[in-house]
Amino acid sequence: MDEVVILDKGGILFVGAYLVTLLGLGVWGRLARKEKSLNDFYLGGRSFGPFVLFMTLFATQYSGNTLIGYAGRAYREGFQFIAAPMFMMMVIGGFLFYGPKLYRLSASKGYVTTSDFIQDRYGYRPLSLLTSALGMVALCNYILTNLLAMGLLVETASGGRFVLWEGIIALSFVMVLYETLGGMRGVAWTDVVQGVLLLVGCAVIFLVLNFRYDAYNVLSTDLKANYPSFWEPPTWRSNLNWLSTLILLGFSISVYPHAVQRIYAARSESALRRSLQVMAAMPIVTTFFILFVGWMGAGLLPGLGSEGGATDRISLYMINLLAGEIPQFKFFMVIFLGAVIAAIMSTVDSALLTLSSSITEDWYRLFRPESSQARLTFLGKILSWLLMGAMALLAIQSESTIFRLIEIKLELLLQTVPAIYFGVHCKSLSGRSLFSGMVVGTAVTVVFLVAQKLGAPLPAKPLGIYAGVWGLGLNLAIVAVVENISRKSSILSKS
Fold first, then answer.
1. What pLDDT is recorded for position 1?
2. Is 294 left (phi over 0), alpha (psi -120 to 50) or beta?
3. Over 80: is that where the pLDDT of 414 sits?
4. Residue 427: count of CB within 10 angstroms of its CB
5. Rounded to whole angstroms, how far apart are CA atoms 425 and 331?
6. How confident is the model over 420-452, as pLDDT tens digits?
7. In angstroms, rounded to a whole number, what is the distance separating the alpha carbons of residues 479 and 289?
8. Which of 482, 412, 406 is CA-nearest to residue 444?
9. Residue 333: what are its φ and ψ, rounded to 5°?
10. Of 87, 291, 426, 461, whose CB neighbour count within 10 A is largest?
11. pTM for this structure?
């Protein structure tokens, strides 16, 4: 395959114009600021209507992890990964399960972070701090995976003209600049642009692949010849793995800290519900289209291996292939390239904003309760620059596959689900029992995740089930046991 540079002079001009637009929206967000408060900076004054809310949720949920990591895994695992759109649909089910009621609570009590809700609901500081800590770990990982995807994108699309670290640093600088300028307003308004690019880009590459190649023949004859394992039925172990993946992704993604903040930022409950109803259809035109790219890549560009690295670049290789064979479609390939950049940036800026709010609201304010809103907002902006710099350096050094990094963060975040879900719908559980369950679930998850690296003979996925799912099972069991003991003790003390 002859290499075609997508990020040539014309591509660089297009991406440059796009980045300037984002900076302009960041400035616009700053001008629209009404006050120097956490509510205004981190939640946009709780003013987002259905369209902006939908676009910011969409652009945030479908990140570089989806466009790069999912395509790579589809290449490696074949048609078994068809379950992925169901994962994303389950996420919307999770949002609808707890989101509207949480919105009503946040509107009346002024929550800024997930930990604010946990502390208000249970009144148990260790639980709210552990929830915040796990969320922060997940956010750091989230930023790391997307920065890594961004570096791979720039390096591959430029034909090596720009290397991984140059792409990470340049785009990171733009993101942190418009994020600290406009806060949540700037982020949400840039998400509208990024969401439109993402939808257009996914549709373009899906249609072009179908028209340029005989998709039916590629996905049947070619794949059967090159990868006969794609056609093998799943084993019982594979089925267990997919069930655990459904639990892992469906529950964990629905409690992403930056997704929770978007629930808080809605103008009304009806606006939130309407945006989520539209979101339910998005896995078909986003996740499935990206899986299609991975499968077509396996048929057209076989031999990239069964591990990460080259397979994680399959979306970019397909862009390169199409641009080389169909010169008149090169502009549309640049649009898709812009869509991938947009997906990455919309995720990183959101996670960065939420991470800085968690540090200031959940931790710094705990020790400096007298701090003014203006001081906390300023501190959050400084933290955004420091955190982005640290994450960029880690991304440059990372050697893990993108999807594996996604799994690790979700396995830890999964342990916060009982506290959030039960907190919204169940008034009888105590913070102490949920804290005990979260500690045990997190400890078990971490043990399985690090055991092999330490030389212990423990698999990362016992019976094909994620460590985080095992941890969640024990988490819930401990909650039930401690809650039962507490109630019996309470009854005995009263008698």
1. 47
2. alpha
3. yes
4. 8
5. 50
6. 999 999 888 999 999 999 999 999 998 888 876
7. 40
8. 412
9. -70, -35
10. 291
11. 0.83
Residue that the structure tokens 């094909």 belong to: 464
pLDDT, tens only, 155-167:
877 777 777 778 8
Residue 69 token pair: 């990591």
Cβ atoms within 10 Å, residue 231:
11
Strand partners, 48: 266
DSSP letter, residue 369:
T
Distances 491 to 11, 122, 425, 485, 494 between C-alpha atoms, Å: 71, 21, 24, 10, 5
Strand partners, 266: 48
Pick the most confident of 81-85, 102-106, 211-215.
102-106
In the 8-state DSSP scheme, what is residue 336?
H
- CB atoms under 10 Å from CB of 297, counted, come to 25
Q: Which amino acid, residue 8? A: D
- Provide the pLDDT confidence category of residue 113 given band limits of 50, 70 and 90: very high
DSSP class of residue 370 equals T
In the block, residue with structure tokens 């259905």: 50
Q: Please state, in angstroms and rounded to a whole number, the distance separating the CA atoms of residues 292 and 79.
A: 10
Q: Which residue has the tokens 């939808």?
A: 199
How many helical (H) and strand (E) elements, i.e. helices and strands, does the chain have? Answer: 24, 0
Comparing C-alpha atoms, which of 86, 118, 155 is closest to residue 421? 118
Is residue 253 predicted with pLDDT exceeding 60?
Answer: yes
**DSSP characters over 110-156:** ---SHHHHHHHHH--HHHHHHHHHHHHHHHHHHHHHHHHHHHHHHHH
- Could you give the 3-state DSSP secondary structure of residue 6? coil
- Rg (alpha carbons) of the chain, rounded to whole number: 23
- DSSP class per residue in 241-301: HHHHHHHHHHHHHHT-HHHHHHHHTBS-HHHHHHHHHHHTTHHHHTHHHHHHHHHHHHHHS
What interhelical angle do 125-157 and 257-264 show, nearest 10? 110
CA 439/CA 99 separation, integer angstroms: 25
Report helix, strand or coil for 307. Answer: coil
* Both tokens assigned to 364: 């710094």
Say how far apart CA 93 and CA 87 lie, in whole Å: 10
Q: What is the pLDDT of residue 427?
A: 82
Copy the structure tokens of residue 73: 């895994």
Q: What is the pLDDT of residues 6-50, one digit of tens each?
A: 677 777 888 888 788 878 877 887 777 777 777 888 888 888 999
Greatest mean pLDDT among 115-119, 285-289, 339-343, 450-454 lies in: 115-119
CA distance to 61, 97, 158, 166, 339, per residue, from 256 (Å)? 9, 15, 32, 29, 22
In the chain the first and final C-alpha atoms are separated, in Å, by: 81
Give the distance from CA 263 to its chain's centroid: 15
- Find the angle CA(423)-CA(45)-CA(377) to the nearest 5 degrees: 90
Q: And the tokens for 295?
A: 């499968």
